[in-house]
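Subject — a protein and its fold
Encoding — discrete vocabulary of local shapes:
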Amino acid sequence: MESGGNVSHRIARISAHLNPPIHSQEGTSVLMRENCRAKGGLPGFKVAILGAAGGIGQPLAMLMKMNPLVSVLHLYDVVNTPGVTSDISHMDTGAVVRGFLGKEQLEEALTGMDLVIIPAGVPRKPGMTRDDLFNINAGIVKTLCEGISKCCPKAIVNVISNPVNSTVPIAAEVFKKAGIYDPRRLLGVTMLDVVRANTFVAEVLGLDPREVNVPVVGGHAGVTILPLLSQVKPPCSFTAEETEYLTSRIQNGGTEVVEAKAGAGSATLSMAYAAVKFADACLRGLRGDAGVVECAFVSSQVTELPFFATRVRLGRKGVEEIFPLGPLNEYERAGLEKAKKELAGSIEKGVAFARK
């Protein structure tokens, strides 16, 4: 029969990953939470989700817990993190889960992370534009990026919080001010536009969406979302009516979900799926896999704008190559001009906010 000390030690180890370790005075109970596996029991990457208790954050956390490339998963939010952490931690996958609650634990949540994913903020509601989200979400992203600057300045940062066209420039300005800005490591997540494009095009063509690849460039709101249907793989052609239908539906996919949920939320599940798909690509790049190419909103010289979404190759340092737009047809060239005009204002709005 095992001694009481050994049993107590095992209990401490089992519970250790649920919360940050509590550093107590000498002589306290052996049942205090230890670091044990919270340092990472398996090879892999350390990932933090900021806004993990929200509508996107919860399914995102669940899916990241399932990713074999993740060894440590930190869940941070200002409310409800303990419950989400406890729930997710019961999944029998290799990643160790630890929860962090409130601003006072932000720095601990970020220390040592390889990848930080930011879905924090308020969701869009019926009748609300992405600009309506700006005043709230801009401040949240700024605060979180200040924490990243201090605690994990070399981490790859995936920004999901809307409006991405403005929040990515805000993050860049915060990092510049802190002296740690590396444009290769800051990426706005536009993967949901690609996921929708693949799905909607597959419906029209009668194909499996997993066999379809549609480049989506520009930004991540309305007319700034520009699917390049002339570059779809497998190669195909569309009528003018099909092109107009598909482009409009891809651009307004978020509104479609918001209206369908009738005030009960926005695109949370599909966004979580897209975010995990993109995060996995970033982790595979960090691992050194070759040929990892996805679309993302990044610092760019593809156009005259300082930020633009195009296909990028991901590697150990984040973005290692930015691909040009390629040949555009007349419809896409007209769409590009509309996208750039709208995008320029959103970028400037973010920069101005960060510099206040």
The two ends are 66 Å apart (CA to CA). Confidence is low (pLDDT under 50) at residues 20-40. The longest strand covers residues 307-315.
